[in-house]
Specification:
The chain has six helices and no strands. Helix 2 (16-23) crosses helix 3 (27-34) and helix 2 (16-23) crosses helix 4 (42-52). The chain is mainly α and 66 residues long.
Length: 66
């Protein structure tokens, strides 16, 4: 799944561990999402978007996932 996750995280000056903690997932799981080896559940994707203060569509290319 294509996404802008790393770009947006860095624009918000956040480290992976900080964002993972805020979302309630492990740093390794978050890292796997960011590098594309795991696809987050819809619940986790929404939590990530909320933590970054953006719409989920700004992070994940939802048109590709369908």
């Amino acid at each position: 799944m294509k996404h802008n996750l790393k770009k947006i995280r860095l624009e918000n000056d956040l480290k992976q561990i900080g964002l993972a903690n805020e979302v309630g997932i492990s740093k390794s799981y978050y890292s796997n999402i960011e590098n594309g080896t795991k696809v987050p559940s819809l619940e986790i994707a929404f939590k990530i978007a909320k933590a970054l203060g953006v719409a989920i569509e700004d992070i994940f290319d939802i048109n590709q996932a369908v």
